[in-house]
Structures are given as structure tokens and as C-alpha cells.
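Look over this record as teaching material.
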Amino acid sequence: MTDLTRRRWELDALRGLMLVLMFATHLPTRYSIGLGQPLGFVSAAEGFVILSAFMAGMIYTRRAEQDGIPVMRRSFLIRTLKVYGCHVACLLFLFTLITALGLKYQQEDFVNYLGFYLNQPVTGLWAGILLIYNPPLLDILPLYVMLLLVSPFILSYGIKHGWRGIFTVSVLLWLLSQFEFSAALYKILVAVTGLPVPFNETGSFETFAWQFLWVFGLWLGSMDAKGALRNRKPFPDSIVIASLLIALFFFAWRHIVGQVPFPGNEMLNALQDKWHLGPLRMLNFFALLILIMHYGERIRLALPRLRIFEVMGAASLPVFCIHLVMVLLALAILGQNMDDRDDLADALLLIGGLVGLYITAKVAIGLRRKPARVQ
């Protein structure tokens, strides 16, 4: 459905907001620190992933009920191939034009960022295409691809047999991820195959941790498609009050201490780690989620519709890809040193980028609506 009036506009608006926050965080300006994790020790990435999973669960559960599970699986595969194609396009853009610009302008941070590829370009190319080598910023789409690949099987099992077994496995994998489970598996893989890509070059996101957030979102979306989510019992007042206190506590902590919760203490910081979705981070996230689910309808009715976010959220994949292109161009040409730019220059860079994302979304939606030409 490409018509915005037929979509869940509030979901599009939330996803658009997550895209704006990610762009503002990734773009090398003096505003990135203040706009990163604004609600506590939770980033826009968590919101974007669970929203994407929710919409996938909602849409593809309806597809399975209307057209059957085989059709649902084919639809998932088509979506997966689209996301994979976008990732490969971004990767090739990074390895060609962006690399050339980074070397021309000799931005030291950016050259270090591409260190593995510059030292081993052939290995970097094939390993990148196979989703093994994932440079920073280009590691979320490979995660998305892998989660989409397993989603039709998860959703099929959930529809037929229920979700208890799925969550048992998912929670177990999240727990194992807190103890470097992926690194241990990868070490075995390297020993067996001689794979030349170091583990730290495979991407920052811990797949076995983030799958839990995705599975939870799929389940919520599937329940919504069946009407169970909207007809659920309200949260008890005690749960809502506890969630509010937890959210306020983490909000104050984030803005008093900064983005590092325990400065100088890596062991305690692991409890809030973004890449492994540490336990305290999950507590913060679920407190916010409960508040959104409890107050969301009242907020939706009270606030005006923010069309700019809706439009971006409705074209999330092209907007996300263009956001990567803009950020990589800025890093290659301008670097991360902001001392040579004043506040106004950074503000214009950020505003100009947001306008570019909005135009991208409008064009993408327009192309999607364009009727097929009669042969």
C-alpha cells in the first residue's frame, strides 16, 4: 500500500523520527552528541529495528492469513533481496567514490575507518558482498538482511505453534550474546576455514543480541494483525508507574553523566552496551516501550500529524541508504574535526541533509505510485 492515507501513519511517523535521529547522530556535526540517545541509554537504532520488525510481523501475518504461508515466504524473500541490493550498492559506493574522496582529502579518521579494505581490497570486496566484512555505518543493513531471512520461518512457526518456544530460544541467544558467543563461534569458523577477516571487522551489532529485539517486534506485529494487541488488557498502574520512574531515572542519568554511563569502567558499561543490548539498556528500552504502548493512543490523538516524519518513514529504505551516502560523503570530505566549522555551518549541513532526505522520500513514494506503462 503506497497511499499514505491507507497506512498506519503513526508507525511511519515514528520510523521517520528514528531516521532523523540516526542521521543527526551519524552526521559529523557538533549536534550529534546532544541528539544521540536523547531519551536515556537507548538509541534510535533500537526503535528503528523494533518498528521495522513490528511492521513486518503485522504485514506478513496478514499476507499469510489472506494468501497462505508460501506466498508470505516469497514476499519476505523479495523484501530481503531488495535490502541486500541496497546494501551492496552502498558498499560499492563506499569502495569507489567515497574511498577516492577520503584518500584525496586525507581525512585521517576516515582512512583508519577503511583500514582493512585499503590493506586488503580484494578480500574486503568479496567479504563485504558476502556480508562478512561490514564497515561501521554499513553494518545495520547486513543485520537486517539476516533477520529478514529467518523471519518467514519464525513467523510461520509462531502462527502454527505459538511463540513460547521461539522466545525461549531467543532469550537464551540474547543471554549467550552477553558472554561473547558470536566471537567464540567466529573463532571456530576462522580456525576451520582460514577466513582472513578479523572479528572486529564483521560489524558492531551483536546479531544474537539484536535478534531478540527483532523477534519481540515480529510477535507484537503478528498480535496486532490478529487484533490481540489492540484488545489487550491495560497495563496495571504499578507497572506503568514503575516504567515511568525507570525512564525518568535513565533520562536524568544520560543527561547528567553523558553518553557513557560509567566513565572509565568497562565492566559496568557492558551493562548498558548498545552493540550487545546490555541488561540495563534493555530495562531502559522496555520501560519506554511500556509507556508508549500505554500512552500512545492519547498522544496520537493529542499531537498534530507530522507529515515530514510520515513521508520519511513511508520510504524508510531509500531514506536510510541516502542517509548513509550523505554521512559517508561528509566524513570523507570534512572529516570528524569540527573546529574549522562554526555553529551556523553545522546547522546548515544538518538542515540541508534533512531536506535531502525528505526529497528522497517524496521521490521514492512518487515512483512507487507511478502506474506501470502499458506495453
Remarks:
- The two ends are 24 Å apart (CA to CA).
